[in-house]
Design brief:
By secondary structure, the chain is of the alpha/beta class. Helix content is 43%, strand content 11%. A 6-stranded parallel β-sheet has the order 3-4-5-6-9-10. Strands 1-2 form a two-stranded antiparallel ribbon. The two termini are 34 Å apart. The model has no long low-confidence stretch (mean pLDDT 96).
């Protein structure tokens, strides 16, 4: 074991790997991303830098002084009061107390609040309550306070919503019907995103976070882009973070477009460009991991996607570094050794503007 480097697999398992194997994994990871998205691989000096980050014997690593970045979040304060089944620690505290604790005890750069379901559909009928709680929290916080919610178009389909479910229609060969119901649901989702955004803006919302856009496919992604463009016109002073749900947009519809570009199959560098065109203030990239590959392979792959997106867009790019994305192992409580290595690599090699 003395000649091996202790690292992890994508499922969090600790393993001992030789230096040669890690270098091979780094090369394979960047080649995989480059081939899939038709982007440039990491250069040899960048691969060597990544190897040194992975091989660093310390448990925790960090960026160099002066290279720190801003950290945004998608409801991190919920972890204090949420149950363990939701990756929380179940402390008996209110949502406001959790927000203040996250800001003041954890020294958060930004903080946020959202509905416990963290989706836009259940927010609409209780928007007056959310406006009141947001207003109270905003008076007590100093760091920027975002209101976060996923578009989550899946909630608009039966049995949870009013529209026929494309997952039922597609296996029966009803392609046109499946597309039509996605278009109808997307329009309702767009209107709800704009409705909630305008209401929060009316009481001084400091920013919105459209989290995990595209989770129900390209029509879901389209609804978020259209709502973003609507809000940019109606509420020009309210920043909006738009975050993706995966490294490429799922083509469950297959034909929807925005700004003249088909959304299905878009990789992060193209996602970032359409988000910028819609008016996003920040675009959040989500890169899936492979649990059967090493952390080195997954981080190299993520850094390749991130570097291309940063070069393609003029807005800040924040990378989702969480459970099963951004090179971080698929675990409810990701190990800090892997989290810090992924974070440092995505900032110093991928040139991410934030995490």
């Amino acid at each position: 074991m003395k000649d091996q480097i202790i690292t992890r697999m994508g499922d969090g398992e600790r393993v001992g790997v030789s230096a040669a194997e890690i270098k091979d994994d780094i090369l394979a990871g960047t080649q995989d991303a480059a081939q899939n998205a038709e982007i440039a691989e990491l250069q040899s000096d960048e691969r060597q830098q990544l190897f040194e980050i992975i091989a660093e014997p310390s448990r925790v690593v960090s960026v160099l002084p002066g290279e720190e970045v801003v950290v945004t979040d998608d409801g991190c304060s919920m972890s204090f009061y949420a149950g363990q089944d939701s990756s929380g620690i179940g402390i008996p505290m209110s949502r406001l107390q959790a927000i203040l604790t996250y800001e003041r005890a954890c020294a958060a750069d930004t903080t946020s609040m959202g509905h416990s379901d963290y989706s836009i559909k259940p927010v609409k009928p209780i928007i007056n309550f959310e406006m009141s709680e947001y207003y109270t929290a905003s008076l007590m916080t100093t760091a920027p306070l975002f209101y976060g919610a996923q578009p989550n178009m899946g909630l608009y389909f039966q049995p949870d919503g009013p529209h026929p479910n494309p997952a039922d229609l597609l296996p029966r060969g009803k392609i046109n019907e499946a597309r039509e119901t996605q278009e109808t649901a997307a329009e309702q989702l767009r209107n709800d995103l704009v409705f909630v955004g305008k209401k929060l803006y009316s009481i001084g919302c400091e920013g919105l976070n459209f989290d995990t856009c595209g989770s129900a496919g390209d029509a879901d992604f389209l609804a978020a882009l259209q709502a973003l463009a609507d809000l940019k016109e109606a509420t020009p002073n309210m920043p909006v973070i738009m975050g993706g749900s995966g490294e490429f947009v799922l083509g469950l519809h297959g034909e929807v477009t925005f700004d003249g570009k088909r959304l299905a199959g878009m990789y992060p560098h193209d996602q970032a460009k359409v988000a910028q065109a819609a008016g996003a203030s920040i675009y959040g990239i989500a890169i899936n991991i492979n649990t059967s590959k090493t952390v080195a392979w997954n981080i190299a792959r993520a850094a390749t996607f991130v570097k291309a997106a940063v070069e393609a867009a003029d807005i800040p790019i924040h990378v989702n570094v969480g459970m099963g994305v951004g090179g971080v192992p698929m675990m409810e409580a990701p190990p800090i050794d892997s989290v810090t290595r992924a974070s440092k690599s995505l900032v110093q090699i991928g040139k991410a503007d934030g995490l």
